[in-house]
Amino acid sequence: MRYLHTMIRVGDLERSVKFYTEVLGFKEVRRRDYPEGKFTLVFLRAPGEAEGGPELELTYNWGVERYELGNGYGHMAFAVDSIDAIGERLRARGLDFSWGPGRTPDGRTAMAFVKDPDGYAIELLEGR
Questions:
Q1: Are 96 and 90 in contact (CB under 8 A)?
Q2: Which tens digits make up the pLDDT trace of 42-77?
Q3: Which residues carry a binding-site annotation for Zn(2+)?
Q4: Is 123 a catalytic residue?
């Protein structure tokens, strides 16, 4: 068994792709429209992941601009080289962290949280 991807639904596909690629450094791997089902899928790979590694799948259901996230969803977590560098990219776009930067509960690792354009929480852990 191997981990393939996580799928999240987004309300504005291009806004989300721009956030994940320009702010977090992901690479768009593939994109496909499904006119019969009225949706588009975009797969992104996090920086540092090898080809064939786990991906993030953005699903845009045509005409749906917003989703209720519910209270069961937690967050995605990504290892990053520099939380400060991501903070600079966020602030350059008029955004900021939703929490932090700070330290993990054991105090050993720098961490921060950011929300993507649809409100999904993303934990950033430096140097893991």
A1: yes
A2: 999 999 999 989 999 999 999 999 998 887 888 999
A3: 57, 75, 123
A4: yes
Q: pTM, whole model, 2 decimals?
A: 0.86
Tens of pLDDT, residues 9-34: 999 999 999 999 999 999 999 999 99
The residue type at 40:
T
Give me the torsion for CA of 89, 6, 52, 109, rounded to 10°: 50
- Alpha-carbon distance 32 to 1, whole Å? 26
Point out the catalytic residue in the list 22, 28, 36, 123.
Answer: 123
| Domains of the chain, first to last | 1-64 (3.10.180.10), 74-128 (3.10.180.10)
